[in-house]
Structure prediction request, 445 residues.
Amino acid sequence: MWSSRWLFVLAAAGSAVGLGNIWKFPYIAGENGGGVFVVAYLFCVALVGVPVMMAEVLMGRQGRQSPINSMRALVQQSDGSKAWSLIGWAGVAAGFLILSFYSVIAGWGLYYIGQLASGSFTGVDGATATQALAALHSNPILMAVFHTVFMGLTVFIVARGVVSGLERAIRWLMPLLFILLIVLLGYGIASGGFAEGFDFMFGLRWEALSVDGLLVALGHAFFTLSIGMGAIMAYGAYVPSSVSITRTVITIAVLDTVVALIAGLAIFSIVFANGLEPGSGPGLMFVTVPLAFGQMPLGALFGGIFFILVSFAAITSAISLTEPAIAFLVEEYNVERSRVAVSLGAACWLLGLASVFSFNVWSDVYVVGEKTVFDSIDYLTANIMLPLGGLFIALFAGYVLPKATVMSQLGISSKSAVAIWTASSRVIAPLGVLIVFLYTIWPTD
Prediction:
């Protein structure tokens, strides 16, 4: 069990916050029109993400096992079709695929710790910061080394378990990350580009909204909240019965959204102050943040600390991605947790090399359309596997699980609260996912 509700909130927020907010949210907002994308994302979090996350936590707490075995038990309790058990398997598969490329990006964060701390970015301009990232991308050996280091750190913490591994680490480091994000926002405000950054993030240019942008917003709501990949169901299994799922999930969603908005405002302020391109893709954070700290007094020190904390946030997310598979293998085969962690980490590391090479030696190898290995795995998981997983979680909680079980786990009894939950899980969340998917499959233009 988590030793307190607040530590579960920090762990789930750590899983949610990670690179999804600080790295991914700003660049996909930049690619999809800024303000209209942010509005679409907020609606997806509130109307789809929160109800599905509540469903996943309650299913985890009711099952009290790994996602795969929890789904088996819940299907049995509900007299449902065995096909529903596939939710657990699909979540584990999605988490494994995500971790394979997530570890590569997190490796960039580890690399930048040394670069910032050594003063390499002191006084740099936008062009130099861009060239530094390009030099890293063109070096497969260097990228593979830091991918290996990150995966090794993740395996080490995961092998130690929940209390001695994860809780001990998150108690201090997550609050420190939030403080440094505020420092970065302060620099963004002082940089001279805050007004443009604010207008880009919250100005509503409806012509920039596309169906593909809606799908990206929906996928990112699931990606950043760690929904549909088994992580939240696995964490839910450790939640004490006395903890309110409703209050806790809303707290996590609010924390996650606030961090995403702060990171976006900070990064876009720096982007516009330095004449950079807001839609420049996955490298956006690794250009803007070194640029900001490179101009600050004691920037080398604070920049190094910032990337240490970003790397830690990435590790908390990586832990949540591995937990569903590890918990299942330990339960199923009664083997030592450490041995399972090493084996799973090695397999994920091997797949991750394909993402490493997609930035250099395999940059012209396309898997889906004109997408590299990295882009293809990112698209498949965030835009297809996670929303579909979330859809089936909502349907299972809304239609298959006994209502008494659901209401008992959520701790709600008033007619209005029951009506809101029922509408969210049975109608709003599933329809939201389905409508976006139908428009994607059958475009109107």
